[in-house]
Hints:
There is one protein chain. The protein is mainly alpha-helical. It is about 70% helix and about 0% strand. It has two domains: about 120 residues; about 55 residues, no CATH class. Helix 1 packs parallel to helix 3. About 5% of the residues have low confidence.
Amino acid sequence: MTANALDIDNLLAALEEGDHRTRCETLRALCPCRNNHVRDLAVWREVFDRALHGGMRERDRAAHAIGTLTEKARRSAQWRDLLHGLRDELDALMRDNRASRRILGQMKKHGHAHRGAARQNYRRRRSLDMANPIELAAWVNHALNLAGEQSVSSNDPGVLRLWRWLKHRIACQPARTTKKKS
Length: 182
């Protein structure tokens, strides 16, 4: 399903102004598991809003769509770019305990997320936001409070080695935690 401007307007109208049943059906149709290819930020921001402020059924449908989106982002650069554009909305969802449990529950095979698992799994998923060594270098500079001449570039051998390690770690051991040492 490719979306043109008219489709996007109809989706936004259904999510914002439609009745409960219409919103639920629209959220179900927007899920990437249904061969949906809508990558419009405004539509997905509304999906994230439904995950926070919708009725129980709307939250479940939105959580499923967002969970599927994060799974697709692991394998597809296009979905990863969309998720990267929704970073603030995802952070807001992860700060809300109820929403984070629902979303991460959808991300797990059997739909269960025990207390504390939401934030732990989100930290693992967060590393997927770095799409290239440039973003990794920016993260290193931010984490170490480096600026100006002290900052590291994306061509630094250490950053490139860390980038290769991170890609290998995500590919071969996606469930393993990496702790930040002081």
